[in-house]
């Protein structure tokens, strides 16, 4: 039986509001979130994780419960 939950790497998009003439600092090109996805429904579960190992740990906990 395959695992129901898996970790997906998603590019992070920061939305910012600026005024005319304001200068923004750059953002990292390789900034990603790690999300847990329910493969049966396609719905994301839980919060966004900065660390892939933490996301994998949470995913393993969810898979052991199902």
Describe the structure.
By secondary structure, the chain is α+β, with helices and mostly antiparallel strands. The chain has a domain at 1-11 and 32-66. Helix content is 21%, strand content 30%. The protein contains one helix and three strands. Strands 1-2-3 form a three-stranded antiparallel beta sheet. The chain is elongated, with a radius of gyration of 16 Å. The protein starts with a strand and ends with a helix. The model has no long low-confidence stretch (mean pLDDT 87).
Main sheet: strand order = 1-2-3
Largest sheet: 3 strands, antiparallel
Structural class: alpha+beta
Q: Return the average pLDDT rounded to an integer.
A: 87
Q: Give me the number of helical elements.
A: 1
Shape: elongated
**Share of helical residues:** 10-25%
Gap between N and C termini, in Å? 11 Å
Q: How large, in whole angstroms, is the Cα Rg?
A: 16 Å
Number of strands: 3
- In terms of DSSP E residues, the strand content is 25-35%
Low-confidence stretches: none
Q: Element order, helices and strands?
A: EEEH
Question: What features would you highlight for this structure?
Answer:
alpha+beta; 1 helix; 66 residues; 3-stranded antiparallel beta sheet
Summary?
This protein is an alpha+beta fold. The chain has a domain at 1-11 and 32-66. It has one helix and three strands, in the order E-E-E-H.
Task: Lay out the secondary structure.
Layout: E1 5-11, E2 32-38, E3 44-49, H1 52-65
Antiparallel strand pairs: 1-2, 2-3
């Amino acid at each position: 039986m395959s695992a129901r939950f898996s970790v997906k790497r998603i590019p992070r998009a920061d939305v910012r509001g600026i005024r005319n003439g304001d200068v923004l600092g750059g953002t990292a090109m390789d900034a990603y979130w790690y999300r847990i996805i329910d493969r049966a429904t396609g719905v994301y579960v839980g919060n966004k994780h900065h660390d892939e190992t933490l996301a994998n740990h949470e995913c393993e906990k969810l898979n052991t419960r199902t």
